[in-house]
């Protein structure tokens, strides 16, 4: 299994529309062969902000894939290219961490 932690930083004030686009694309990703989990997360409410907090412009996508080839196919899927083009102006930066269990 391959796990991905994708830290997505929106341009200031643009997290909500970026998350809406993510939600609209999520069903297509979940339907991909080998996709086990694909979910957006934000800082938990009720927890005081700290140096480890992501902040109001960031969300983190937690992904699980059955294999590296499944993840590689996801990266070039047409709906992902469309999502990237649609959200380019809303996105400040992305950090994608591809991990495997030990």
Question: What secondary-structure arrangement, pairings included, does this model have?
Answer:
Elements: E1 2-10, H1 15-30, E2 35-41, E3 58-65, H2 68-75, H3 78-87, E4 91-99
Antiparallel strand pairs: 1-3, 1-4, 2-3
Helix pairs in contact: 1-3
Q: Outline, from the CA principal axes?
A: globular
| Helix/strand/pairing category | alpha+beta
Characterize the largest beta sheet: strand count, sense, and whether it forms a barrel.
Answer: 4 strands, antiparallel
Kindly report the spatial arrangement of strands forming the biggest sheet.
2-3-1-4
Order of helices and strands: EHEEHHE
Whole-Å distance between the termini? 10 Å
Q: Mean pLDDT, rounded to whole units? A: 97
Report the top-level CATH class: Alpha Beta
Comma- or semicolon-separated keywords:
single chain, 102 residues, alpha+beta, Alpha-Beta Plaits, 4-stranded antiparallel sheet, 4 strands, globular, monooxygenase, Quinol monooxygenase YgiN, monooxygenase activity
């Amino acid at each position: 299994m391959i796990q991905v932690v994708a830290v997505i930083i929106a341009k200031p004030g643009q997290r909500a529309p970026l998350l809406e686009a993510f939600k609209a694309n999520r069903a297509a990703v979940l339907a991909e062969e080998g996709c086990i989990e694909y979910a957006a997360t934000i800082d938990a409410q009720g927890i005081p902000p700290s140096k480890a907090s992501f902040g109001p412009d960031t969300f983190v996508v937690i992904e699980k894939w059955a294999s590296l080839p499944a993840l590689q196919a996801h990266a070039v899927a047409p709906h992902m290219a469309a999502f990237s083009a649609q959200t380019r102006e809303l996105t400040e930066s992305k950090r994608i961490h591809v991990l495997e269990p030990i």
